[in-house]
Specification:
Number of helices: 11
Helix content: 25-40%
Strand order of the largest sheet: 3-4-5-6-9-10-11-12-13
CATH topology of the largest domain: TIM Barrel
CATH architecture of the largest domain: Alpha-Beta Barrel
CATH superfamily of the largest domain: Aldolase class I
Strand content: 15-25%
Structural class: alpha/beta
Length: 365
């Protein structure tokens, strides 16, 4: 019988695992704390559990970590891991250090099904969803690398998590939700829901579930202010259009000036960067507590887009700020290792000619 990976268990599932194997319920709490407070990968080090029980657990189960295929470190301190999963699939995980925080960007799928035309990941076909263990394992691998255990210590290096890596998190809601609940567990990694941001291109039914069940920060990959352009840039818009998406965001729970929707807006030269676009964006999100992240397009091999000029981006930001919206211009991080926004893509996948051909007509906008 193959050993079960405990990283795939919720706390309730871990309790059931213990009870099904004639172990007392409190063993689940002990194991959970060793895994998620202290980052242990070996039962033999769990010194408040008897040796015989530790040996028994070792026969039944394991605490995995993803295999590292490659690590790249940027000149700005950003670190990117290419991670190989048990089936040979690969995903990427990024750590971004800043003065006041350390953010881990996690992947939720191998590849992506959304085909957003400006995004490098979008040129890789969807292979499969990640399990909750594969998602939480990425975070734990980063904490291992940074020597960031125990998880609740002062001056921890990992303070924030963003679900902005490969894949659309809300098309893998059950496993992403399970992983986020583990991250937020007070008896484990103990990240506040205010320190976790989930980014989506607009899967409306699961936006509503995220608000009701998780309450984490919400970021929307917007990138266009009308359906015609967004249908092309973010094709899921054909199913969940802007009107319905904005209404869903307007109803997201507990919004306030300190608890805002983040709108992600990649600046594409002569496509979505005009003053008219800026003014229409203001009208679109009027009345919603909001922050707008303006993201200079990060080039990748084979892309047909160009980054908006600095003057265009600065002017766009000024229009938004004059209307009362915080609109920081995101400083690209890890560009030299293709770890910046929209650049993640496992090196084993190549851009398909048919997908490249889809990009060319965008220049007519």
């Amino acid at each position: 019988m193959s050993r079960q990976d405990l990283l795939n268990f919720s706390f309730d599932e871990l309790k059931a695992f213990c009870l099904n194997n004639d172990l007392p319920r409190f063993r689940a709490t002990q194991i959970w704390r060793w895994m998620y407070c202290f980052g242990l990968q070996s039962f033999l080090e769990m010194n408040n559990i008897s040796k015989s029980t530790r040996s028994f657990l070792n026969e039944l189960s394991l605490i995995s970590r993803p295999q590292i295929s490659e690590i790249k470190e940027s000149k700005d301190g950003t670190i990117k891991w290419l991670i190989k999963l048990k089936d040979g699939s690969e995903v990427e995980t990024v750590y971004i250090p800043q003065e006041d925080r350390g953010t881990v960007c996690l992947s939720s799928q191998v590849g992506c099904t959304l085909n957003c035309s400006f995004c490098h990941t979008g040129t890789q076909a969807l292979v499969r969803n990640l399990t909750s263990g594969e998602i939480i394992g990425q975070l734990m691998l980063v904490m291992d690398h940074l020597n960031d255990w125990p998880s609740g210590k002062n001056h921890r290096k990992v303070t924030n998590v963003v679900m902005m890596g490969m894949g659309e998190p809300l098309l893998n809601y059950d496993e992403v939700s399970k992983a986020i609940k583990i991250m937020m567990s007070d008896d484990g990694i103990s990240l506040s829901r205010r320190r976790i941001t989930l980014s989506t291109s607009g899967i409306i039914p699961n936006i509503d579930k995220t608000g009701a069940e998780l309450g984490v920060n919400l970021a929307i990959s917007l990138h266009a202010v009308n359906d015609k352009l967004r249908d092309t840039l973010v094709p899921i818009n054909k199913k969940y259009n802007l009107k319905d998406l904005i209404n869903s965001c307007r109803n997201y729970p507990n919004l306030s000036n300190s608890r805002r929707i983040t709108w992600e807006y990649v600046m594409l030269k002569d496509i979505n960067d005009s003053e008219e676009d800026a003014n229409n964006l203001i009208k679109l999100i009027k009345g919603i507590p909001s922050k707008i992240n303006l993201i200079p397009f990060n080039p990748w091999p084979g892309s047909f887009f160009e980054t908006s000029s600095k003057n265009k981006i600065d002017n766009f930001a000024k229009i938004l700020m004059d209307a009362g919206f915080a609109s920081p211009i995101r400083k690209p991080r890890g560009q030299d290792i293709y770890a910046a926004c929209g650049q993640l893509k496992s090196d084993t996948e190549k851009i398909r000619k048919s997908q490249i051909n889809k990009l060319v007509p965008l220049h007519s906008f």
